[in-house]
Write a structure and sequence with these properties.
Helix content is 78%, strand content 0%. It contains 14 helices and no strands. The longest helix has 35 residues. The two termini are 29 Å apart. The chain is mainly alpha-helical. The protein is flat and about 75 Å long.
Length: 313
């Protein structure tokens, strides 16, 4: 049973190859010259087996843990491939086959790479400013009663407004599309980061600050050594929420007139009715979002290592 679980991706890949080679394609389907879907499946299984054979103990354990998920994904893609290429049960214009989608990822790889670099420039610029100002706003709301009195009502009024609703005003204020798009992304990150940072500070026990004051800690020392570290779990939750919101905002922000970017690419291909390219762009964006969130989790685990024995990760 353990062997079947470990080799489930290989079994799913073998079944995928058998179906692709034995079952003929529908006469309504125009197959590309190269079976990119089978190449992708084979490459995925080869990488999986290499991790399983040559990986360290921890790498093998993580690879085995993900084997059922990976095998099921390959099986689901095989079913979708049968639906779209063997029997064409869905409109081929809107539901292209995996072979065409992976073919776009290879043929348009250079152009998609340029779009990705453009997107990352906008995303990184807006995300950094949103995180910095969100954390600073949250700290000020948590420790300054005067700042809280004047700014908290504005945060509650302006924060819930979707960043995309500011597009008409942003286009007038900012001189370039890059700055306008970065501002919208910063706004999407700023609100949840500020609110949850302030909420984290509000949930700190007063006894912590009392002990610090007894030991002679100044106001600045209490903020830096007690307040901010104790609020970091909430702070990271706000950053995670803001990061997800920023990717949603990014697609709309790149429709303001940009000539590059993944969001622009998806919208352009949709207007061209090239839905294989649309799905390829969505795959690239989802992979970038996954890598960013994974990196943030790694940073959180490293900074908040003291929480590992306190809560369940």
């Amino acid at each position: 049973m353990k062997i079947i679980k470990t080799q489930w991706p290989l079994i799913s890949a073998a079944l995928t190859a058998a179906v692709a080679l034995i079952v003929p394609n529908s006469s309504e389907y125009s197959a590309p010259d190269t079976s990119y879907f089978l190449l992708f499946t084979a490459l995925t299984v080869i990488i999986y087996e290499l991790f399983l054979i040559f990986g360290t103990g921890q790498v093998r354990a993580k690879t085995t843990y993900r084997s059922a998920f990976l095998g099921t994904i390959i099986l689901a893609m095989n079913i979708f491939n049968v639906i779209t290429t063997k029997y064409v049960l869905l409109p081929p214009l809107y539901f292209p086959s995996p072979e065409k989608i992976f073919g776009v990822l290879i043929s348009d790889s250079l152009f998609l790479g340029n779009c990705l670099l453009y997107t990352l420039r906008i995303q990184l610029l807006g995300w950094v400013f949103g995180c910095v100002f969100g954390i600073l706003t949250g700290i000020a709301l948590g420790f300054s009663s005067a700042f809280k009195y004047w700014v908290q009502p504005l945060v509650r009024i302006l924060g819930p407004i979707p960043p995309t609703a500011w597009i008409p005003i942003v286009l007038v204020i900012f001189p370039s599309i890059i700055m306008a798009s970065s501002f919208l992304i910063a706004l999407a990150v700023w609100f949840p980061t500020a609110v949850l940072t302030a909420n984290g500070i509000a949930n700190i026990k007063n006894s912590y600050f009392e002990v610090g004051a007894t030991l002679g800690a100044s106001k600045a020392c209490s903020i830096l050594k007690i307040g901010i570290p104790a609020a970091m779990p909430f702070m990271f939750i706000g950053i995670f929420n803001g990061t997800c919101s920023s990717f949603i905002t990014l697609v709309t922000a790149e429709m303001l007139g940009a000539k590059y970017g993944i969001g622009w690419y998806i919208n352009w291909q949709k207007e061209m009715m090239s839905y294989a390219n649309v799905y390829a762009g969505l795959i690239v964006m989802s992979l970038v979002c996954y890598l960013v969130i994974t990196a943030l989790f790694k940073i959180r685990d490293r900074i908040l290592v003291w929480q590992a024995g306190v809560i369940k990760w």
